[in-house]
Amino acid sequence: MSVVTEPRGFIDFYNKPGSSNGAKVAIILNELGLTYRHHEIRPSTSLDKDTTYHSLSPNGHFPVITDIHPDGFKISLDQTGAIAQYLISEYDRDDHAISFPQRSAVEIEAMNWFFFGATRVAPAHGEAVHYKKEAPEGEWYSVERFRSRTTGLFFALEQRLKETGDYLVGNKFSIADIAQIPFVVAAEEAGVSIEIFPALTAWYNRVISRPGVKKGLSVAGIEFSA
User: Fold this and answer.
1) Where are the beta strands (DSSP E) in 71-131?
2) Residue 105 and residue 166: Cα distance in Å, rounded?
3) I need a surface site. Which of 13, 63, 160, 168 has the fewest CB within 10 A?
4) What confidence category does residue 7 fall into, taking pLDDT thresholds of 50, 70 and 90?
5) Ordered domains of the chain (ranges, CATH)
6) In 3D, which of 85, 148, 153 has the Cα closest to residue 114?
7) Where does 80-176 show beta strands of DSSP type E?
């Protein structure tokens, strides 16, 4: 890495349209009111031939952000969890707009639910969407397996919201909620109706009304109904 003269606060955000992970990052950027430049990566973009994109993500993994670290180095991150933690630690450690005080019990709980979305909901939902679209006719096992798994994870969110009320952690909108939004928005693509979950439906209507969420989903190319 080399020291650069570009000022902090001009984040470059690279994303492929329709990416659930990109939606999480876009929501965080907009909820925190950060200044950023959005670079849309189209499927036709050749990452092998374009040295700029290849240097950002050698394996073609997006979203990616670049930023100027406080020590003057330009950093590039292409893992959604790392991006989320970086943005919160650098830009939300005082106001806690979508986070909680460091090392507090609620911060630990919020990160647990963030990774619940990332490591439980995301894979199951992704497989459910894939097999619903691509499974050969008559191949019901994989379709039903991942639809059922996604439904079960939504049930876990339903039970949690029945306990906590409006949001998943700490009585406020946070990173814990952001991690679930893209998958609940696209529930029908996985063959799941959230209408069977009243608490989750109420939560969806609540979070989707937030300007930062709407803008983030729109920037990420995610269709949603308000």
Assistant:
1) 74-77
2) 19
3) 160
4) low
5) 11-91 (3.40.30.10), 105-211 (1.20.1050.10)
6) 85
7) none
